[in-house]
Amino acid sequence: ETVNGSEDIDTSMDMLQRQKYHHKRAFEYISQALKIDETQNSEQKEIAINLYQEGINELSRGINIDVWQGTGEKWIKAQRLHDKMQTNLAMAKDRLNFLATGKLSSRRPANLTIMNK
Amino acid sequence: STVTTSIPQNDVDALMLKVADEAGLELNMELPSNPASTIGSTVQASAEQDELTARLAKLRQTE
Prior knowledge:
The structure holds two protein chains of two kinds.
Chain A: H1 6-38, H2 45-63, H3 73-101, H4 109-116
Helix pairs in contact in A: 1-2, 1-3, 2-3
Chain B: H1 9-30, H2 36-39, H3 42-61
């Protein structure tokens, strides 16, 4: 999988390191936001909102890194990480929207089931 | 006659320590140059993202 030469390996290391860097920062921000959110501490709601926003920014930066330019184990793992970050970007945005507006999400699974019937 | 017999044992010990020191120093200097060890593996990153998904999903259920 590394037949392309050392130049490509350096490029892949750089891209994959950057992806992990943004993942790590996003993870730290959103973990902190969740810690507040899970205790339903309304006094710290604004802090949680800011932390979610910072986490969302970092997830977006990580998702913007193109991980489809290579093949092999490293890239497949990076693509999986990309997909997971995309899932969490959508979920964190939903949660941020819920906290900021106090409204229930319109995409709740229960509602979808009723609408589909 | 050989020259080596005239070298005192203390000098040999000192040289051995010096060589060991230099080898140890080089070994230590190689450690930070491995970039994969600085941030963690992609597998670990994926597991951490899974943790966020689970916690966000749980909050969503309690809305």
